[in-house]
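Possible regression after last week's pipeline update?

I re-ran a chain I had predicted before the update to compare outputs. Posting the input and the new output here so someone can diff against the archived version. Not blocking, just want to make sure nothing changed silently.
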Amino acid sequence: MTAFYMFRIYYLIFWWKKHEVHDAHHAPKDQPWTMTLPLIILAAISCVAGFVPFHDMVTWDGKELHTALDLKVAGTSVLIALVGIGLATVMYLKENPLPERMANSMRGLWTASYKRFYMDELYQFITHKVIFQGLCVPIAWFDRHIIDGFMNLLADATNSLSFGIRRLQSGSIQAYVYVYLLGALLLAAITMICVIF
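New output (post-update):
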């Protein structure tokens, strides 16, 4: 699938219609050597990196890991890739009606694959309808009304209480002694009642 897709893209971009650039100021140009040189180095490394036996050099436990090339798996993979490249070449080497006819013969499959099998819609449904609406909105409501509401209630109650008792703090020592005396007499009365009964 990857080989087919990549060669399809290659043929569509470079072999089909010529892409005209109407604005000469933005005409395509080749990249500078600072981009070309690293790409050449990476391409050269990728051509030989597969032959370097890294698996014998680096392992998780420090011991050598001996592996071998399985020609059946490698051959099958290369054959499938060549079939994909061949199919892309037949369908997209030159502009022709074959891709359109195939799309029309399997319209449902073509539409589903064009829509990426509706993965975006499924993702939107799960994230927006299930997670956001079903979970996040109730959690936000609980946080805003229950948690914040309880904290606001405590703050309001503390505020109201402080406004209610602020007259007790007048700064007059006589008033403080008077309140202290009343409190002491009240405690003495409660203690006497408890002792009697």
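Follow-up from reviewer: compared with the archived run. DSSP finds eight helices and no strands in the chain. Marking as no regression found.
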